[in-house]
Amino acid sequence: MTSQYEQAGVNIHAGEEAVRDIKAIVSQTHDGNVLGGLGGFGAEYELTSELVNLEQPVLISGTDGVGTKLLLAIEAEKHDTIGIDLVAMCANDVLAQGAKPLFFLDYLGLGELEPDKVMTIVKGIATGCRQAGLSLIGGEMAEMPGIYRSKDYDLSGFAVGIADNSRLLGAMKVQEGDLLLGLASSGVHSNGYSLVRKIIQDADLDLNKVYPGLKQPLIDELLTPTTLYYHQVYPLIQAGNLHALAHITGGGLADNLGRMIPSELTAVIDPTSWQVPTIFNLLQDAGQISTAEMRQVFNLGIGMVLVVSPGQINEVRATLEQQQTAYQMIGKVVKRREQPVQYQE
Question: PurM-like N-terminal domain: which residues (predicted)?
């Protein structure tokens, strides 16, 4: 017999099934500091002596979502990588402060709870957590017909890391003469998708077509998950090789680097120092978007920028090359001119 609650659009049994199915996936991300498991009213993470053996331990937290990239995933019914995007948008921000990532929580709101789809989404979140060095210790799943249409859903996440106050990265450490190393993005990442979707609609682009220069259909190119930089970058943080990091999200290089540059200095970027991926050229041409707007909205192939002193640049480059991490020298820090970040044309 169907309950009144189920007739109202909420299936309690489907929710219980989904939670049961994801427990094994979630537990695979846990480290030894996770206490208990799913099912409590709050998630527990022990700050062991190893973690807090710091002079001034500081917790660094970040929260974010995936934005309208979700609409493309919903339209294409491809839900396996969107969870990686969710983790990356939070974890890369925490990493950029110089933190060791600790744990992650997620929130999933749906119009209709389908256990198989939930499982696919959570598998992606768990994959992202493993790539980011995070334990997925809890979250919330809510079926809310009326707020979301049946196939719609939304994701948000919360990451927490730890660092010693004296080892935090940021503008307070950046100096004149510092060099900028750009780490490659995997594509559009998770910013600018409102403009992406407008370009698709206005230019009548075919999401299933493999356009010249692409190696896969446009939809797969656009749903390529955001790169997580933990394994490449955290060893450099531990070694004390970095002055600052900038996660390149909405606002592009200028806005995000500007957050890491002190007021008396300027970052000068050479836009010819790296090759812009084909997907951005395709979007720019199809939408007739100016270069200035492309730079403001998208990462254009650079997902993370390392600010490094000249004395440590050889060590940093050697580490990145040993990791086989793609990077480019994209600019330097100089005395301030008119703007916090400038392009060297």
Answer: 58-163
pLDDT tier for residue 6 given thresholds of 50, 70 and 90 = low
CA distance 126 to 23: 11
**DSSP structure class, residue 196:** H
Q: What's the half-sphere exposure (Cβ side, CA atoms, 13 Å) at 326?
A: 10
Rounded mean pLDDT of 198-222?
Answer: 98
Q: What domains can be seen in the chain, in order of their start residue?
A: 4-37+55-167 (3.30.1330.10), 171-343 (3.90.650.10)
Helices (H), 11-143: 12-27, 49-52, 69-76, 82-96, 115-132
Q: How far is CA 84 from CA 32, 66, 148, 189, in A?
A: 23, 10, 22, 10
Q: Which amino acid appears at position 329 of this protein? A: M
pTM, two decimal places: 0.91
Number of alpha carbons in the 13 Å side-chain half-sphere of residue 232: 24
pLDDT of res. 16: 60
What count of Cα atoms within 13 Å lies in the side-chain half-sphere of residue 55?
Answer: 5
CA distance 253 to 66: 19
Q: What is the sign of the dihedral through the CA atoms of 276, 278, 283 and 284?
A: positive
DSSP 295: H
Instruction: Report DSSP state, residue 56.
Output: S
- The C-alpha atoms of residue 270 and residue 281 are separated, in whole angstroms, by 18
Over residues 99-124, mean pLDDT: 94
DSSP 106-164: EEEEESS--HHHHHHHHHHHHHHHHHHT-EEEEEEEEE-BTTB-TT-EEEEEEEEEEEE
Alpha carbons 38 and 19: distance in angstroms, whole number: 8
Q: How far apart are CA 328 and CA 185, in angstroms?
A: 12
Quote the pLDDT of residue 274.
96
Structure tokens given for 127: 């994959």
Angle at CA of residue 241, ends 64 and 333, nearest 5°? 80
What span, in angstroms and rounded, lies between the C-alpha atoms of 314 and 325?
Answer: 15
* 254 close to 295: Cβ distance less than 8 angstroms: yes
CA angle 235, 241, 262 (to 5 degrees): 125
